[in-house]
Amino acid sequence: MTNPTISVRLTKGATILTAAAGVTVLGLSPAAAHVTANSTSTAAGGYTQITFSVPTESDTAATNKLQLTLPEDTPFASVRTKPMEGWTAEVTEKKLPSPATVGEGAITEAASTITWTADEDHVIDPGEFQTFTISVGPLPEEEGQQILLPVAQTYTDGRTVAWDQPTPDTGEEPEHPSPSLTITAPETTGHGTTEEPATAAEQTAATSPSGGSALAWAGLIAGLLGLAAGLTALIRTRRSN
């Protein structure tokens, strides 16, 4: 997904001055990037990692807080955040209006918001951007369905910008478009898209001697034993001579 820019259309005379004054009062540069989202997969029923790119548009204040609202009508059974230095992430859950079928089971509550908060040394200063990554799933089963992921961006001057406007069917982009993803056809081949990503502990277990690499360890031990036997035979031969 590309990062379109907000442009200020200038006409003649007083209109130019009015537009420039409005931009100055808000502390925004004339051309500012949107908050966008990119995902590793959009396959129906699968799991995905979604990365939000968040630029600071203000010329006078830094971004110190970001709140993501997750869908309630198509909730995710699993929501994980990626650790970020200098930022804390708080996942808030709430009870659903009615049980929702997700994947092969039903859930009665789900994550509703994720709030990232920066310490003083890790705010996103003017002219900078930061990325925020989450892992979610399973995705809805309906191909072509659009999932809105609205974000509220808060600045150190107390101002909050809501990126929550859906793009109409005409395709004309609103002033503050909501990040979103569109569900595509389920994948019939491949690995890892229909299963929840493994945690670090699960990945470690999978590569331990009791996991998937047990045969490799057994082969290494057998090789060392064979080498030791060969050296013993060589020493005995030399002694007998």
Question: How would you portray this structure in words?
Answer:
The chain has 241 residues and is an alpha+beta fold. It contains 3 helices and 13 strands, in the order βαββββββββββββαα. The chain has helices at residues 13-26, 200-206, 214-240, and strands spanning 5-6, 32-33, 36-39, 48-55, 63-69, 78-81, 87-102, 105-118, 129-137, 146-148, 151-155, 160-163, 180-182. The strands form 4 sheets. A 5-stranded antiparallel beta sheet has the order 7-8-5-11-12, with no helix packed on it. It has a 4-stranded antiparallel beta sheet with strand order 3-4-9-6, with no helix packed on it. The chain is globular and about 80 Å long. The model is unreliable at 1-31 and 200-213 (pLDDT under 50).
Chain-wise SSE layout:
Layout (H helix, E strand, L loop, with lengths): L4 E2 L6 H14 L5 E2 L2 E4 L8 E8 L7 E7 L8 E4 L5 E16 L2 E14 L10 E9 L8 E3 L2 E5 L4 E4 L16 E3 L17 H7 L7 H27 L1
Antiparallel strand pairs: 1-2, 3-4, 4-9, 5-8, 5-11, 6-9, 7-8, 10-13, 11-12
Largest sheet: 5 strands, antiparallel
Helix content: 10-25%
pLDDT < 50 runs, ≥5 residues: 1-31, 200-213
How far do the termini sit from each other?
77 Å
Structural class: alpha+beta
Task: Supply the number of helical segments.
Answer: 3
Strand content: 25-35%
Q: From the alpha-carbon coordinates, what is the Rg to the nearest angstrom? A: 27 Å
Secondary-structure element pattern, one letter each: EHEEEEEEEEEEEEHH
Tell me the total number of β-strands.
13
Per the principal axes of the C-alpha atoms, what is the gross shape? Answer: globular
Mean of residue pLDDT? 79
Arrangement of strands in the largest sheet: 7-8-5-11-12
